[in-house]
Amino acid sequence: MMSQENNRQTVANEEAKHAWVYLFNLGFYILPMVLFPYSIAEIVWLSLAMLVFVGLYFYGFSLPPHRMFWPVMGMFVIACAVTPWNPGSVALFSYVGFFIGFAYRWPYALTGVLGLIGTLAVFQWSVGTHWDLFFHYGSVIVITVAIFGRIERLRQRHAAAERRSAEEIERLATSVERERIARDLHDILGHTLSSIVLKSDLAQAHLGKQQYDAAAEHLQELSEIARHSLSQVRQSVSGYKHSGLTLELKRLQQRLHDAGFRTEILGKPPQLDATRETALVLAITELVTNVIRHSSGQICTIHFDESNDLYRIQVTDDGHPTQVESGNGLVGVRQRIHAFGGSVDVSTARGCAVALQLPKLATSNIYGATP
Fold first, then answer.
1. Residues facing residue 185 across a β-bridge
2. Cα-Cα-Cα-Cα dihedral of 194, 195, 198, 201, to 10°?
3. In the 8-state DSSP scheme, what is residue 267?
């Protein structure tokens, strides 16, 4: 509720910056002061009344609609006070009509406009004015300007709604981006830290056996992994960048080999657009990381297959799990694949098998052109 009020007030404040443009209508009030033989005292009185009126006008523009009553009432009183001297006060009544049309809902606005017309009639045929057409022209002007006020109210409401919509879109986009970065960091750091732990253990084992050359090789690889990880973390804030599915599979195969797994990659990796390829790379990376962390097996198989409308990818190990808990990693895999209309199925019937399915896209969706 407070946000809606702030949006409405922001729109009103922006409109108030241009309120002076609408003062051109005061020419109808000033013209009789130039043409008619007023005394100096009358001109001073009419001028002071106009200045106070203008002050109330700008003050009213700076307020939200529900607080405009007293400034508008002050403007109405001034318009009534100067009418016996200056029939150009129809311009002042028109401003009152504008604020009534702008500030109030239809029933109240209609009542207020009818009250203004009644006031013009009283001055025309009871109090008296210096203009025979005071009521006729005044009524037309008041009704017309009140309609403009109503239109302005609707325009500001629409502008406030658009602003709220833009803010909501920005908020949702920020939330989605934060979730993406969190998933990417989880997948990247999980993969990298597992590799660092593995390389450190291997280097320590070689040092214990005084196999210094092998230990040095693992330490060199450890340094390269750390640098590569730092680059990936930096890239994650602007979008994860990888070297392509084929090269990433080779890196994962090397990781599995270092962890003591025999790795089989069967089938042909799919040719995907950049966005879906990134999601698939991160998903397979997370699944391989889980195999290295949790599997008691010795063989890991990554199998690619496809049908007319689906790509199928299955990551299997020959461990002996009793159940698979859906931690952050597996949840992230599901989110990535579901985002593209795919599915994720987990089976522990023979080892642990995670099957990913991605629907194929039409050529027009990938390349932006219909074949």
1. none
2. -110
3. S
Alpha-carbon distance of 117 to 149, in angstroms, equals 16
Contacts of 247 (CB under 8 A, 6+ apart): none
Q: What is the mean pLDDT of the chain?
A: 81
129-168: per-residue pLDDT in tens?
A: 878 888 998 899 999 988 988 888 888 788 777 777 777 7
Q: Smallest Cα–Cα separation from 82: which of 109, 110, 106, 47?
A: 47
Please calculate the CA angle 315-319-321 and round it to the nearest 5 degrees: 95
Q: Are 79 and 46 a contacting pair, CB within 8 Å?
A: no
Q: Is 358 helix (H, G, I), strand (E, B) or coil?
A: strand
Alpha helix stretches (DSSP H) within the chain: 2-16, 27-35, 40-61, 69-82, 90-103, 106-122, 134-208, 212-236, 245-258, 274-294, 328-338, 363-367
Most confident of 191-200, 222-231, 278-287: 278-287
Per-residue model confidence (pLDDT) at position 165: 75
pTM across the whole model: 0.47
Phi, psi of 311 (to 5 degrees): -100, 135
- For 10-39, the pLDDT digits (tens) are 545 555 555 676 788 888 899 888 888 889
State whether residue 321 is helix, strand or coil: coil
Positive or negative torsion for Cα 219, 222, 228, 233: negative
Mark residue 37 as left, alpha or beta (left: phi above 0; alpha: psi -120 to 50; beta: remaining).
Answer: beta
Cα–Cα dist 211/220, whole Å: 14
Q: Which residues, 6 or more positions from 112, have their beta carbon under 8 angstroms from its beta carbon? A: 97, 100, 104
How large is the greatest C-alpha to C-alpha distance in the chain, in angstroms?
Answer: 116
Beta strands at 262-266 and 299-306: parallel, antiparallel or unpaired: parallel
Question: Cα–Cα distance between 97 and 322 in angstroms, integer?
Answer: 77
pLDDT value of position 71? 92
